[in-house]
Each structure stands twice: as C-alpha cells, then as structure tokens.
Amino acid sequence: MSNRFFEIISTSGKARTGLIHTSHGDIHTPVFMPVGTQGTVKTINKDELLGIGTEIILGNTYHLYMRPGDKLIKKLGGLHRFINWEKPILTDSGGYQVFSLGEGSRSKKLARITNDGVEFKSHLNGSKHFFTPEKVIDIQLNLGSDILMPLDVCPSANADDKEIEQAVKITSNWFERGYHHYQKAQGDKGALFAIIQGGANKKLREMSYNHLSQFDVSGFSIGGVANAGESKEKQKKALEATLPLIPEDKPRYLMGVGMPEDIFSAVSLGVDMFDCVAPTRMARNGTVFTYNGRLNLGNAKYKDDTKPIEDKCDCYACRNHTRAYIKHLLSAGEVLGIRLTTLHNLRFMMRLMGDIRESIKDDKFEGFKTKFLKKYR
After folding, report:
1. Cβ–Cβ under 8 Å, residues 219 and 5
2. Which distant-in-sequence residues (6+ apart) come within 8 Å of 285 by Cβ?
3. C-alpha distances out from residue 164 to 109, 152, 233, Å
4. Are residues 153 and 234 in the same domain?
C-alpha cells in the first residue's frame, strides 16, 4: 500500500514499517526524530548525527521565528543550508510553545488564544506577536521544511470536555484556513500534516478527524497526548480512539513521545513517527538508556566502573570511554560529559528503532517487544 509520499513495506500485527519520500531523502519508519529546537540538536554536530543513523530532525517554528527569524533564514538559503543539514527536516507549528507561554507563566500569562490566532509575548524580550494559521504556514515555507505542522490549540492535561471541544473547533477552523493558504503557495513546498486533537474523548477525536479528513493531507499527527502532562492511561485511550480513524496509507505521527516503553505501545497500535526531548534532556542530567534499563551516571557507584555505558553499543562514548570517566566529566561540569551521554542516548534510540523495524520485517514484533520490556524494566 503506497502513495507518492508514504509506502508501507511490511507489517506485524498492527505494527508496520514504511518509507516516507521527501526531496531531501527517504525516511525509514517507525522513526525517532531528534529534536533540534533552534536549528541544532543540543551539543551534537551534523557529522555525529549522521554517524548514529539519523534520517530526519525536528525544528521548532516558534523558536526559529523568534531567533534568528524565518525571513533571515530564507534569505540565507533556507533552514537546510543555514544549519548545513542535507536530510529531511520536520517543523512543528509552534502551537505548543505558545500554549506553554499561556499556561506556564508564574505571573502574567504571555499568550492569549482567539478565533483568529494566538497573541503572545516573546519569551526573549516581551515584544508582542500574533500567529495566525496562515502565518505559521508562511514561516515554515520560509524555513523550507520537508514536513509542516499546522497551528493547533493544545489544551492542558486537566482540561474538561467542554474546553477540549472548544480546542478541537478552533484547531479545525485554523486548519481549514492554513490548508487553503498552503494550497495557494507557489514553488516547492513540504508535506502538510493535520493534527488530530480531542484529549481522551473518543467522540471529540472523531469530531476532529471527521473535519480534517475532508482535506488532502500527506499525513496525520496525534496531538494532545504527551505535551501537556497527560497520564499513560489518557495517552492509551487517545491512541486507541484515534488510530483506527486514520487511513492505513497515511503516516501517523505521535507528537512528543519518545520513552522506549511508550514507543513500543504506540508502534504496536500502528504509529510511524516519534519525537521527544527526553533522550537529550535526560542525557544532560546524566541519565542514559540501555537495553537493561536506565542508568544515572551521576551516582557515586559509577566512580570506579570501568565498563562502557552499554557493552553492545557502538556509539563513540561506548567505544572510547568508561562509565567512571563519564561520571567524572559530569561531576566536574565538563561539556564533554553531556556530549557523550547525548551521543549515547541518541544512538540508543536509533538502534532501538532499527531493531523494531527488523522485528516487524520478520513478523516477530510482539515477541521482541515482550523480551525488550522484560529486560528494560
């Protein structure tokens, strides 16, 4: 089953492998996308990203608009040329960041949602800005993104059904405007996804999808599942309500999810794409992933541990350094320490996704999932 943008290669139950085709190269799915919020994956350079097997990175529309500015990036040849990255780039809409300004400020809220768009103040200098659905598309077109996200409303994890329904209605209206604006754009343009909202409410998820499905989009994103502190139970309900709605020949992107156990659960339901800051953020705090579970290298017990982070890992950190040395670097506040833990965690994610794809190809996904989680937990 395929279209020009996405094709399914193999299946194992509901889990599937596939290929996403872009002008900057193909992406093997299921895929984990490292987050490069401001045009960089923190502490890691391009060659290191390529060396660990990265096929696509994520950039943030809000942050790149605020600094250095999407018009400057366009003037300098687009985001790919600006950051010297030749493979695909997905950009999110900036909606979650604006939502965070509205909900996260301890004093005065920095953002206000209206039917027309979002009014907000810069987190950098307090200057006022307004995002419309059309403007968010224009920003991403200026960046030259391979995959674009529309502006959406991200309700909080504690929102009631009335608030979530209002968010769905506004998101649907915004998408219609953004879609028509995208359709009018001239020249090369990346693939536009639609974002399905609705919390854990099955009817609201259906309402969201029914409106969005009227439009010819390249794929569907599942929003409101991981960005606002939702419980695992709510995440599962939302996925079970949403995934059966999405046509099989469209890629499914679960936004903001990247913990191994959550990836397995989502892949088993048919999700294709993931992104999350957790692997890099946790690395900066000294926490590393292994197939036998997580380790905190800041702990004193690693001060004389001569083993690599993980015996079977082929990353630079594991090939060259011991846990004891990395623990020393972290304790001393040396930047190399967090570079090594970040490299390891991202390589772990690439190895994990590769192993998941192989298990689906061999129709042994459920067995691999059970075996992995038993050791990991």
Report:
1. yes
2. 296, 298
3. 20, 12, 17
4. yes
Q: Which helix (H) or strand (E) holds 273?
A: strand 273-275
The bridge status of strand 191-196 relative to strand 147-148 is: parallel
**Which domain, by its residues, includes 18?**
6-276
Q: Does the residue 1 lie in any domain?
A: no
Tell me the C-alpha distance between 80 and 73, whole Å: 9
Q: Are residues 292 and 246 in the same domain?
A: no
The total of other beta-carbon atoms located within 10 Å of residue 186's CB is 6
Catalytic residues: 92, 275
pLDDT at residue 230 in the model: 64
As given in the structure block, the two tokens for residue 375 are: 């050791």
Q: At what angle do helices 323-331 and 335-361 cross, to 10 degrees?
A: 130
Q: In what order do the strands lie in the sheet with 147-148?
A: 31-33, 273-275, 252-254, 219-222, 191-196, 147-148, 89-92, 57-60
Say if strands 31-33 and 25-29 run parallel, antiparallel, or are unpaired. unpaired
Same domain, 188 and 269: yes
d(CA 338, CA 335): 6
Least confident of 103-107, 122-126, 321-325, 362-366: 103-107
**What is the tally of structural domains in the chain?**
2
Give the model confidence (pLDDT) of 319-354 as tens digits: 999 999 999 999 999 999 999 999 999 999 999 999
Mean pLDDT for 298-321 is: 98
